[in-house]
């Protein structure tokens, strides 16, 4: 009798596990299908309602499958869409989830990089942009984005006019050195 009890319990556990796996797979396939439609034409911008939908799908996946290796990647993709839509607050929230929940994942340096960019370019918060640049350089000094962060540090807080003047000056210096 005990053996039937163990077999029955094992069957229930396997059944529950397979249902969980199949739901995760369905969620993954739903995201993949939505991405195919959303990103098939790279020349047009994303419609806001579709952007909100894909962000929600990515967030729901990461929330339901927090331990899944795709979760930080989906959060980074969601943040990228939010940045494209100029929704800096949403992007920062998503990037914070990556750096807070998955601090050692391969997406963490990118998340910190994008936080610095987002604070500078969308939210116009030069203090937080600088903080994230410093955090990036402290944690990831040899990352391929380190030189980009150093370049960003030079332009944080500059107006468009100041930035254009700086670019023009560098261009003139470059031309003079080539003559």
Describe the protein.
The chain has 179 residues and is mostly helical. Helix content is 78%, strand content 0%. The protein is built from eight helices and no strands. Helix 1 packs antiparallel against helix 2 and helix 2 packs antiparallel against helix 3. The mean pLDDT is 88.
Keywords:
179 residues, mainly alpha
Helix-strand pattern? HHHHHHHH
Tell how many strands the DSSP assignment holds: 0
**Helix/sheet category:** mainly alpha
* Alpha plus pi helix count: 8
For the biggest sheet, the summary is: none
Q: Please tell me what the overall shape is.
A: globular
Could you tell me the radius of gyration in angstroms?
22 Å
Strand content: under 5%
What's the N-to-C terminus distance?
93 Å
* Percent helix range: over 70%
* Arithmetic mean pLDDT: 88
Low-pLDDT regions: none
Question: In brief, what are we looking at here?
Answer:
This protein is mainly α. It is built from eight helices and no strands. The chain has helices spanning 2-39, 48-64, 70-84, 88-101, 108-121, 126-139, 146-155, 160-177.
Describe how the helices and strands are arranged:
Layout: H1 2-39, H2 48-64, H3 70-84, H4 88-101, H5 108-121, H6 126-139, H7 146-155, H8 160-177
